[in-house]
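Methods — Computational structure assignment.
A single polypeptide chain was analysed. Its primary sequence is given first, followed by the predicted tertiary structure written as C-alpha cells.
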Amino acid sequence: MNELVIVMPVYNEEGAICAVLTKWVKMLDELQMQYEIHAYNDGSKDKSSAMLHVFSEKCPKLVVHDKKNGGHGPTILQGYREQAANSHWIFQIDSDDEMGPESFGQLWKQRENYDFLIGIRDGRCQPLARKVISVISRQVVNLFYGRSVWDVNSPYRLMRSESFKKIYMLIPEKTFAPNVILSGCVSKLKMRFFEYRVPHGDRKTGEVSIKKWKLFKASVRSFVQVVQFSAKVR
C-alpha cells in the first residue's frame, strides 16, 4: 500500500501537463515517500493522453487512466473510489498548474493530527461568476452541514483514506461537485481539519471546460445534489 496517492484529473492540458507532472514528481521525490500519481484522462480531445503515456514510460510512479468524458466531478470521484484502498492518504490536485507543489509540504507535515487538510486558494485569479458560486457553495454547506472549511471546493486537498472511503462510495457517481460534499461531511462528521493558504495563479494554457450559461445550470444542479446528500450523512 502506498503512503500517498495523488488523484489528478486531466482534460485538454497538452500545453501544461508534462511541466506540471515534472514539478510534482520532483517535490514528492524530495519528501522520500511511497507514492503514485494517478492521472485520469477525462476524454481529452488534444494530445494529453499520448503525452501522459510517454511520461509514464520514464516515470513508473505515474499511472494513466483513460476514460470517456464525464466531467471533473465524476472523474475525481472515480479516482477517490478506486484509490482509497491502495493508500493511506489521497491528495487531489488539478492539472492546470493554478496551484503548485510548493505548499504541499506544509500540509503533509501536519497530517498525523488531522483527517482532512486543505489549501485555501490565495489570490484566486478567476472570473467573478466562479467566485460568486464559491461563496454560495460555502453558504449552502454551512447551512446544511454546519460551518466547515472556508474554500469548500478547493482542488488542493489531502484526505485520510480510512476516514473517507465509505463516504466516497455513498456519493452518487454523477455528482457534479463531490469535493463540496466532502467538505460538508468534514463538518457534519466532526472530522479534524487543517487549512493553509496556497498561492493561486491564473491558468496559462488550456481553457475552463464549463462556461457562462452551462456553468450556471451546472451550479444549480450541484447545489441541489449537495443539499440532498446532507440527509445521508450521520
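Note: The helical segments are 17-31, 48-58, 72-83, 104-108, 128-144, 161-170, 178-188, 212-230.
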